[in-house]
Amino acid sequence: MIARITLLSLALLLAGCDNVEKLLADPKVAQREADAKAIGGACRHGLRSIEDCYALNEKASKSAIYAGWKEMDQYMRDNKIEGVVPVGAKPAAPAEEVITEGKAEKAVEDTPKSKARPKSADKAAKSDAGH
Questions:
Q1: Which of 1, 45, 66, 75, CA to CA, is 20 to 30 A from 56?
Q2: Does residue 36 fall inside a structural domain?
Q3: Which of 68, 74, 80, 77 is nearest to 43 (CA)?
């Protein structure tokens, strides 16, 4: 009987507690969230855009990076703190270039005609050089 009352009172006490999730959460997950938030704050202080920050830290949670970036932005505005110019690697440029129809047509027109030889001329030049 006493065990049931104790269990019931403990359940009622924990139902009103907002920190139950924090007590039961994995500390590694909480650490990764805190790290991502710190990364976001550092990116903002380093005058990096949020997109650059995402690109440089692909494994970190984007929502936590944004929360840290936003929090640091507000802190810097409130305290009139200037950012620091970033030193280090820039995010990689896109691997592919998007070519629209206008650019493709212009590229074809810009090629010098003297360099562009028909394939039959190339074959004739090779056969003359070989004999």
A1: 75
A2: yes
A3: 68
Tokens found for residue 89? 């690697």
Predicted TM-score (pTM) of the model is 0.51
- Residue 16: both structure tokens together: 């009103």
**How many domains is the chain built from?**
1
Render pLDDT for 97-116 as a digit per residue (tens, 0 to 9): 677 776 555 555 555 555 55
The answer to whether 2 and 31 are in contact (CB under 8 A) is: no
Q: Residue 114: inside a domain, yes or no?
A: no
CB 38 within 8 Å of CB 70: no
Q: Would you say 64 and 33 are in contact if contact means Cβ atoms under 8 Å apart? A: yes
Half-sphere exposure for 64 (CA within 13 Å, toward CB):
16
Instruction: Establish if 129 belongs to a structural domain.
Output: no
Are the C-beta atoms of 84 and 41 separated by less than 8 Å?
no
